[in-house]
Write a structure and sequence with these properties.
15 strands; 2 domains; single chain; five-stranded mixed beta sheet; 26% strand; 220 residues; 7 helices; alpha+beta
Length: 220
């Protein structure tokens, strides 16, 4: 069985293991018992979200998710206004010092101890991941369509044809800042009845295509 992507893991956290008394104790104390994700290289991650008092498991790195000002709907979709920052456990532990309280095999952190943006950036690095499958490509398509439809050549094509097919192409070896995927560099190729959106550094070699194509409808 393949390992879940980071996005899948964020949206579908593992249920509490009732055989883990420390996780149960955390829940009873009003803390979110964070789950563990194992990445393809064998390292482990857990997520600390600003608004949640969290009991972290012992992991290699922690994902810091600042949900300040986010709606519940945004939280459910895993979309954040701020970058998700990955910090090595030893670096985070050194930063928190005595504020990181160990109880059993869990480490308790509170919203008031969540690092501010400048500190987060200094401690770690933003999550970057690849466009790995069709669902990723559809997400890219959804988020870049507003930019595509505003292009003058595309707008003229929509005006002429009333509907234009759109295909997105991305190099699966390139890593993107997923929180700001709608802002990545784009190159548009306007053809007779379709628009090709080249995402990132796709050049002469077309590496990945998303289908089915999405229609661009008139904006007025």
């Amino acid at each position: 069985m393949s390992k879940p992507s980071l996005n899948e893991w964020m949206l579908n956290p593992c249920p509490i293991n009732r055989a883990d008394p420390d996780a149960l104790a955390a829940r009873l104390a009003g803390y979110f018992a964070a789950s563990t994700m194992t990445t393809e290289d064998g390292s482990t991650l857990a997520m600390w979200t600003r608004s949640l008092p969290t009991a972290l498991p012992p992991v290699d790195s922690v994902v810091l998710a600042d949900d300040d000002g986010q709606s519940p709907a945004d939280r459910m979709t895993g979309k954040y206004k701020h970058d998700l920052i990955v910090v090595r456990w030893d670096v985070l532990a050194a930063h928190l010092g005595a504020r990181l309280v160990q109880r059993g095999n869990r480490y308790y952190v509170d919203p008031g101890d969540f690092p501010e943006e400048a500190t987060r950036v200094a401690l770690g690095q933003p999550i970057r991941r690849r466009v790995q499958d069709r669902s990723d490509l559809h997400e890219v398509l959804h988020r870049v369509l507003p930019r595509v439809s505003k292009d003058p050549a595309v707008d003229q094509k929509i005006h002429d044809l009333r509907e234009v097919a759109v295909v997105v192409m991305a190099d699966p070896s390139e890593e993107f800042d997923w929180q700001h995927i709608e802002d990545v560099p784009l190159r548009l190729e306007v053809h007779d009845r379709m628009v090709v959106v080249l995402v990132g550094r796709v050049g002469e070699r077309i590496a990945h295509t998303v289908q089915p194509w999405a229609p661009l409808l008139p904006t007025n």
